[in-house]
Amino acid sequence: MPLPTNNIVSQLSTVHVHPDKPEEACGVFAVYSPTDDVATLTYFGLYALQHRGQESAGIATFDHGSINVHKDMGLVSQVFDEDVLQRLPGQWAVGHTRYSTTGSSRVANAQPAIVSTRLGEMALAHNGNVVNASKLREELLERNHTLLTTTDTEVIALLMADAVNDGKGWIEAAIDACERCQGAFSLAIATPEGILAIRDPNGIRPLVFGYFGDHDPQNGPGQYAVASETCGLDIVNAHYIRDVQPGELLWISETGVKSLQWAQPERRLCIFEMVYFARPDSVYHGESLYSYRKRLGNILAKESPADVDLIMPVPDSGIPAAIGFAEASGIPYAEGLIKNRYVGRTFIQPTQMMREAGIRIKLNPLRDVLEGKRILLVDDSIVRGTTSRKIVKALRDAGATEIHMRISSPPVTHPCFYGIDTDSQDQLIAATKSVQDIEAQIGVDTLAYLSWQGMLAATQQDTTTFCSACFTGDYPVEIPEMFKRSKLMLEKTPVKA
């Protein structure tokens, strides 16, 4: 049975059906190592990427050309144990941890997607969202394909299988399939001959690769890993080489690594990966995201100062920006909320009476820190506002005399179509309310967001190389009208300040 939707920053009282944060993308991991236990390496890689999806997990290994697969609903540690991993021998593997963006939460939709071809079976893991998947799916049905899932991942896999069955090799078939897909896709594909790592031309979702062991990959074939984030490489002690580039394909096999630029790159990395989704210890542009998020706090303090006694974060996502705000403002930093990090997705939901009483499952305020204090609360985003309102009430109940809130990103006014599960536009609080209205609704004394310009400037990169559509409505890949209407109801004119 599918597990309930997870909230990264949960509400104080209960688990809502509708999250108050954008839900994660998916995590992909692949490893090529003929001399190692690739299933266990993949397990740990997925464990490090668990924050990107908690619905289901799967691993496929290739053992001298024969595939072994295990996937199920649940967290990585729930789906796999030592007995399962021992039944997955092989020389290379691909794994996936999923949060559904296209396709419902059920075991049939768990990845990797497995399809058969004239060259043998293949296993495909996907992070992103193919916006023309409905049209491609109709074409596959017209060609008498039987689709076993409701995911765009299966669509990509079947397109590739068709190309293989028409006489193409693995590389040519992958390029053929990718050229027909529009949207975001970072792919790890295991075949009987090796591993493919592919990124869409915009590079909307991240993908990195590295090597491990004592062998220098510059001197011939070695041991390699591919992951959604560098934290997935770190956990298996793999050395980061570089990002898979937008529009690039890597072929990893017994001959080493081959790179092909299959499409003209036009980089548009999702800025929300840097603001919130990716782990703070993952490296982007040569530095940890912890450093970038601290810089967001520095800029936020300059843009929207406040006369308060202490700066505190909403744990854990608000911590780096709160530290940065405190550093820039000279106001002391303190933890006023303690998070119970052992409450997982299977936690028993409280009764209605408990919810009404405000039982504090995940976040508990520290009265002796808060009482009589004017506090500034820092978080990375507000999506629906329900969690923020509950947190503010709990802080006032604990004795805070003033509560000012600062958000280290601009107002989220538009839904994402590229692999992040945000609400439809009418459910996004900033799409329907002004900052002053949100301020009143969540019950703070003042509220301010980081500017769009400040968020991008903090990257210290070319600001045109990011997708910030959730803040601006400027989508880098055209969205089919029917797909667009499913979420984009208001067409609110974005405000970039």
Structural features, described:
The protein has 497 residues and is of the alpha+beta class. The radius of gyration is 23 Å and the shape is globular. Residues 1-19 and 489-497 have low confidence and may be disordered. 29% of the residues lie in helices and 24% in strands. It has a 7-stranded antiparallel β-sheet. The chain folds into 2 domains: 27-267, Glutamine Phosphoribosylpyrophosphate, subunit 1, domain 1, CATH 3.60.20.10; 286-340 and 350-461, 3-Layer(aba) Sandwich (Rossmann fold), CATH 3.40.50. The chain starts with 26 loop residues before the first strand and ends in a 12-residue tail after the last helix.
Stretches with pLDDT under 50, minimum 5 residues: 1-19, 489-497
Total beta strand runs: 23
Please work out how many helical segments DSSP would assign. Answer: 18
Task: Output the CATH topology of the largest domain.
Answer: Glutamine Phosphoribosylpyrophosphate, subunit 1, domain 1
Q: In angstroms, what separates the terminal alpha carbons?
A: 44 Å
Report the radius of gyration as a whole number of Å: 23 Å
Strand ordering within the main sheet: 3-2-4-1-10-9-11
Please report which band the strand proportion falls in: under 5%, 5-15%, 15-25%, 25-35%, 35-45% or over 45%.
15-25%
InterPro entries: GATase_2_dom (IPR017932), Ntn_hydrolases_N (IPR029055), PRTase-like (IPR029057), PRTase_dom (IPR000836), PurF (IPR005854), PurF_N (IPR035584)
Keywords: 4Fe-4S, Glutamine amidotransferase, Glycosyltransferase, Iron, Iron-sulfur, Magnesium, Metal-binding, Purine biosynthesis, Transferase
Binding site for [4Fe-4S] cluster: 270, 416, 467, 470
Function: Catalyzes the formation of phosphoribosylamine from phosphoribosylpyrophosphate (PRPP) and glutamine.
